[in-house]
Design a protein that fits this description.
Elements lengths: L6 H8 L7 H4 L4 H28 L5 H25 L16 H29 L3 H26 L11 E4 L5 E2 L17 E4 L1
Antiparallel strand pairs: 1-2, 1-3
């Protein structure tokens, strides 16, 4: 059962601005950041789909739906990023890179590394830049990604710590069809990020 995630509490820490690196303090323009985010979501969607297939091959029957949920979450983020790009007069274009697939353990470790960097550095910096440029839609998208990436990291760390628990089938993951939030809380009644009702969530198991 997933603990409730308070968006305001998480973002208060993520966007406090303490200890920011030079890279964080000087992000690109929101247009550049949106293009990078759209490409990243396109690549991640393909990567997680491939990771799900590998997890199935290796007998990690509960890790496979986690990666399928992650792939769906990335897919749902793309239209929001595309809409934000359109507001800036740009077209969303991206072609997925061929995924590098290793063992499920290595794939989980890769996901933890990638999503931790996005959660702690990249998306907070991009959100601050979007707010500075008064691009509210882009800022909301980046902020929502901070919370969702935190959930990815937590699930993957659990799988790395107790891999045998992730071999039998039985774990189920929910993806909000509105904001792409990922949860394993089956008692969830509404999305903690966008307040969408449970009926808007897709199930992966």
């Amino acid at each position: 059962m997933v603990r409730a995630v308070g968006l305001a509490a998480v973002l208060a820490v993520a966007f406090a601005g303490r200890g920011r690196s030079a890279e964080e303090q000087k992000p690109g323009s929101t247009l550049e950041n949106l293009k990078a985010a759209y490409q990243a979501a396109t690549d991640a969607r393909a990567r997680y789909a491939a990771f799900a297939a590998k997890a199935g091959e290796e007998g990690f029957k509960s890790a496979a739906p986690l990666f399928r949920a992650a792939a769906r979450s990335e897919e749902l983020r793309r239209p929001k990023l595309a809409a934000a790009l359109k507001e800036l007069g740009a077209e969303a274009r991206a072609e997925a890179a061929k995924p590098e697939v290793k063992s499920t353990r290595e794939n989980l470790e890769r996901t933890v590394k990638d999503k931790t960097a996005e959660k702690e550095t990249l998306h907070p910096a991009w959100a601050r830049q979007a707010e500075a440029e008064k691009q509210a839609a882009a800022a909301r998208t980046f902020k929502a990604a901070v919370v969702t990436n935190g959930e990815y990291v937590r699930f993957c760390q659990q799988a790395l710590e107790k891999p045998d628990d992730w071999k039998p089938a039985g774990k189920e993951f929910l993806v909000c069809g509105v904001c792409a939030y990922v949860s394993a809380d089956l008692a969830l009644k509404q999305c903690p990020i966008c307040s969408a009702p449970r009926s808007k969530f897709e199930s992966f198991k």
